[in-house]
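tool=predict chain=A
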Amino acid sequence: MRAELPLRLARTAAFAAVCVGLAALAHAMGGGSVPAPHTAALGLCAVLLPALALSARERSAATINVALVCAQFGLHELFGADSTAYVISHPHGRGLGQAIGMLLAHLTATLITGWWLARGESALWALLHRLGHRLALLRPVAVPAVRPAVAMVIVRIVPVDPLLLHCVARRGPPLPA
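tool=predict ok
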C-alpha cells in the first residue's frame, strides 16, 4: 500500500516536528544552548525534505532509527553552530568524557523518537489496512447497463412423418410448440 500526498505530508510533518522538538530539548538538557527559532526552523526544513522522500510507504523501525540518527547528528551540529559562544560552551573537541552528556541526550532523543514513530507508523498502517478492507466491502459495484436485445427468431415447421407419430424420441431438444 502506498500513501497519497496528504497522508505523506501529515506523516512527514509529525516526524519532523517530533525529531526537531526532541533534538532541541535534548541539546539544551545536554549542556548546549537552546536553538534560536530561525535555527529550529532551518532544522525543520532540513528534516522535512528527506522525511518526505521516505514517507511513501510503511518503513521499518530500523529504517526509522537510521534516519533519526542521521537527523540527530545533523541537528546537533546545526544547533551547536548557532551558539555565539560555540567554542566556549559547546562540548566539541573537549573529549568524550565532557561530551558524554550531549551524546546521551541526543541518543535518548533518538530512542524516544524512534520508538514513538515506529509504534505510530505500525498503528497507522494497520488502521489504513483495516479501513481499506472495510471500505472495499462498501464500494459500489459497477453494473453494466442492460440493453434490450433485439433478436430474430426463425421458426421452421417440419412436417412429421405419419409413421413416426407414435415413436417416442427421448434425445435432443424439445420440438417447438
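Residues 84-89, 93-97 have pLDDT under 50 and may be disordered. The chain has five helices and no strands.
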